[in-house]
Amino acid sequence: MTALNQVRPQPEIEAWWDQDEPLAADGDQAEFAAIAPLDQYDQLTETLAPAPKITRAERKTARQALKASRRAERRDRRRQAAVTRKERKSATAGTKPSGKRRRRLGAKLLTAWRNLRRRRHLFVSDVFATATLGPRSRPVRAILSAVGIGIGITALVAVLGVPASEQAQMEADYDAWGANVLEVTPQTDRQTGEVIAIPDTAPAMVARIRPVKAVFTVRSTPSDTFAYRNDKLSSGETGGMTVWVGDGDPLGALNTTMAEGKWFDQAAVDLPTVVLGKTAATRLRVGVGQRIWVNQSWWAVVGVFDNFPRYSQRYDSGVFLAPGWAERVFEADDIPIATIHVNSYSGQAQQVRSVLAPTVNPARPSGVSVSNLSDYAYAQEAQNKTFRQLTLGLGAVALLVGGIGIANTMVVAVMERRGEIGLRRALGARTGQIGLQFILEAAVIGFGGGLIGVALGAYAVFCYVAYQGIVFAVPIWVLFAGPAMAAAVGVLAGLYPSLKAAHQPPTTALRTV
To answer: I want to staple 161 with a disulfide (CB 3.0 to 4.6 A). Which of 10, 143, 343, 474 is the partner?
Structure first.
């Protein structure tokens, strides 16, 4: 239409265009050609003529030619940019380089310097080879040096191990005497005179206290419940034995053992079974595998306790019924909780006692009575404090003595090798390489001596406790700190003499060869 608008200002063409006849016949074209100029006729003909169809191959060829032309343009632009950069560099050759260029040059110089220094360093394998060269070439002197270091570590382990074994034995004795055992019993209401029952969930809650080691629950039975050897005896022949219902871990809570048989397992707990105290078994004259008569029924004996400790001797004449079967025989109100025995870890009884009452009966802590700590507990606490102070003092003294012995051994070992150091310096070894060699050598000898000292010290403590018949106990940190301390002291002891000898002129050091 743009070409048509350029032609329309001609009045003759505008008059002809207003006609309704289409421009299709040759005669019309000839008549129009006669009226319009030739150049305007060609322009209008090209505009009104239908566009020729383009094939797929032609379209692909045109697209490739367009891409090629764009690539050529980009290539020309890059070339022009490169030429421009070169011209700028040549123009600013005498000026100061830019910040980016300076950073690039600095990185290159730093890399070159590092590569130069790396060429002067020894490989890791060479460092360890030279560090072990002395012990390998002079094994007798290395062994004697390690033994000298080991003696100091042996003294440290023995001085700390013997008091630790004595303390462990005393803690075991105090535990056996009930120093960490607490008893929980129900209180009586002063207004009503009734016993405040302990909730059945109390044993499980007490067992969740972290310092608690074992819990044993004792339930009382009706007052007319007795144990007999058989069903032929009269009801008055009770033999002074008391019947309880036991649940939990009596062996761990009361520090006792089984003389015969075992405590209730998962199978026996729901069967008519009993466990007897040693005195009760003697009076009934029965053992494991036999039966006794309790509450008008037969109960099988599955275990017999050994003698209970002094603080729980009342259970020697007791008969303990299986809790699962007792709940079927008696009503729940007939077997209330009478006592809960709580055994805590050594030295933790006071912490456990402070939380026992609210744990047993959260709704009414005042309705629970917790026994006071025994005199053994206070004695154990005082002894532990004394042993801690003694261990700290003896450990410091042993560490000082061992460190001085190690330092003396390493100083003598390094001073004897000044000639070797001077010879290596004369051959071109650097001061840092010589110092590193002897430092690592001192660490190797010190670590080996530490291992020897730990082994000898542990063996000495073992011989002592075997002779005394007490518990063997060595602090675990000593076994790891011994070799580490020996290596550290060996490094510190060998650092000064090795560096001093390494800084001497080769001629001075070679005089001792």
So the answer is: 474
